[in-house]
Automatic annotation (TrEMBL):
EC number: 2.7.4.9
Pfam families membership: Thymidylate_kin
Organism classification: Bacteria, Pseudomonadati, Pseudomonadota, Gammaproteobacteria, Oceanospirillales
Boundaries of every Thymidylate kinase-like domain copy: 10-201
Keywords in alphabetical order: ATP-binding, Kinase, Nucleotide biosynthesis, Nucleotide-binding, Transferase
Recorded GO MF terms: dTMP kinase activity
SUPFAM superfamilies according to UniProt: P-loop containing nucleoside triphosphate hydrolases
Enzyme class: transferase
Cleavable signal peptide: none
Cited InterPro entries: P-loop_NTPase (IPR027417), Thymidylate_kin-like_dom (IPR039430), Thymidylate_kinase (IPR018094)
UniProt gene name: tmk
Protein name from the UniProt record: Thymidylate kinase
Main function: Phosphorylation of dTMP to form dTDP in both de novo and salvage pathways of dTTP synthesis.
Record HAMAP family: Thymidylate_kinase (MF_00165)
Record-stated family: Belongs to the thymidylate kinase family.
Length: 214
């Protein structure tokens, strides 16, 4: 069933500026008079946020199995879809999310090496055909993203602690997703000033709005 709202996602590895640019996208849409719901994955609802805590916390005594990680990602996503995303889209709101299923194909598929066919089956089960209308892939060299991440300070989560080769695989996974769905996934060169990145994002949003608001 088609829903009246629209769904935009921002994707990319750690350190590329998704959170900052998500705020920019939301504000640009709100200036058009649209109802906008900002969210993130894993998380977005109280139940999904509790799953997020488990996914991001490191326990050296009981490390999280890779298949368990994948299933938890989709458990959080199913809750997110049921309690936040679908209801918002049903009332005509625009949902803007920091990550969605492209991240699962990149992280658990490409980087962890889990079967993409299994991921696709879980995608079909949980999403029932729902996909983003537009995905902005913020891309930059892994070394540059890692340098930005190091400036944040604070404790790193399970994913941020991974080595550089892990994130090279993540980046390659996103590249493959973009090549496979070029109409939906638009690459944005994030290795530039914030003003330059947001100028490109703004132009993409403005160019897509007429078709997305028909």
């Amino acid at each position: 069933m088609s829903l009246p709202g629209r769904f935009i996602t921002l994707e990319g590895s750690e350190g590329v500026g998704k959170s900052t640019n998500l705020d920019f996208v939301c504000e640009r849409l709100r200036r058009r008079g649209l109802e906008v719901v900002a969210t993130r994955e894993p998380g977005g609802t109280p139940g999904a946020e509790r799953i997020r805590e488990l996914l991001l916390s490191a326990d050296d005594d009981d490390p999280l199995d890779e298949t368990a990680e994948l299933l938890l990602m989709f458990a959080a996503r199913a809750q997110h879809l049921a309690r936040l995303i679908r209801p918002a889209l049903a009332r005509g709101a625009w949902v803007v999310s920091d990550r969605f299923t492209d991240a699962t194909f990149a992280y658990q598929g490409s980087a962890r090496g889990l079967d993409p066919n299994v991921i696709a089956q879980l995608e079909a089960l949980s999403q029932r055909g729902l996909k983003p209308d537009l995905t902005l892939w913020l891309d930059m060299p892994v070394g540059r993203a890692s340098a930005r991440l190091s400036l944040r300070g604070g404790d790193a989560d399970r994913f941020e602690r991974q080595r550089g080769d892990f994130f090279e695989k993540v980046r390659d996974g996103y590249r493959q997703r973009a090549e496979g769905d070029p109409e939906r996934i638009v690459r944005v060169d994030a290795d530039r000033s914030l003003a330059a990145v947001q100028a490109d994002i703004g132009a993409i949003i403005d160019s897509r709005l007429p078709a997305m608001t028909d």
